[in-house]
From TrEMBL:
Species the sequence originates in: Ameca splendens
Compositional bias per record (Low complexity), positions renumbered to this chain: 355-371
Cellular localization per UniProt: Membrane
Designated name of the protein: Solute carrier family 6, member 17
Annotated keywords: Membrane, Transmembrane, Transmembrane helix, Transport
SUPFAM superfamilies: SNF-like (SSF161070)
UniProt keyword Transmembrane present: yes
Record's bilayer topology term: Multi-pass membrane protein
Chain segments carrying region Disordered: 350-371
Signal peptide range: none
Pfam families in UniProt: SNF
Transmembrane segments: 88-114, 126-145, 157-178, 199-224, 244-269
Amino acid sequence: NGEKILGYLSSNVLSHDLIPPHVNFSHLTPSDYAEVYSVIKTVKEDSFAQLGLEPCVLEDELNKAVQGTGLAFIAFTEAMTHFPASPLWSVMFFFMLINLGLGSMIGTMTGITTPVLDAYKVQKELFTVCCCIVAFLCGLLFVQRSGNYFVTMFDDYSAGLPLTVVVILENVSVAWIYGTKRFMQDLEDMLGFRPSIIYFYLWKYVSPLCLIILISATVIEMAISPPGYNAWVQELAQERFQSYPPWALAMCFALIVVAMLPLPIVFIARHFSLMSDGSNKLSVSYRKTMMKDISNLEEQDEARFILSAKPGDPPLSGVAHKPYVTPAGNKSVDPNSLSPNVCYGTSYQNAAISPTTPTTPTTPLTPESNS
């Protein structure tokens, strides 16, 4: 602004009489510029807008930063300096940011490690540490002096359109391919009650329509507005819109493609049987959970577990079961009084029978009629 005023003075657009005598443009202070600015604005009221002079107010620059990362690290920290006991609130505020970052990191790492650990036999601790080290090295890109521009690039191109495409494909897969009725039946089996019928229409019709509108709006916005970023130009002392260089444009489109690339690759690989879909085997974590549940069954409840729908329930009524026969003879016994080894099959012997005791062939008994 001072250089503009000097240019107007040399070209006789402004008169030297408008400049107070104590103002030195080689060491122009904010208070001196504010005084010159008010004088010129008062005298040149009609043609002041054509001069292009702007007030240099720190509060206005801070207000421009109240968005994105500037809200937490510039605007809010400036506000906390006016709080009573401001050091305490500053420590609490940044401690909260650290906890938020750790919580987000745990969720992100779990989303990366869980599918791999379920599909492959990998040591969990070592794999998690390797993922954290790789993420740390990638995060060094964002702590440079130009890191804020990379944060904006990743936020605009790696999380917007790709995630929306993934979500709509998930919605279509569950609601239209797997079936909304089947999905609601699964929820009823898991929750114990049937969800409201309004979710049926939301999942099947409303959600895909809203996601299609959102994707269309995102594509239109990317086509209309050129790829770029807002940068501070030191020579002009202003924030101006700058276009991305060619290498940055390639990085932007690579972020979009890489985020959506697993979808067509896995689809093609499974379509041509190049990759197993995992339907012929249980996941590692599911097998471990299942074996743990079986090992925790109480011994006296195992017979009922075999004959009933759930452990602990009485045997199913209305079904004629064939009486159990002991290896020593044809005596019918109560299934609930048997040892678990007898119930599982002929390969297991009753512990009460001596291995040397001769056994006689069993005579099948005719089950009694229900009448």
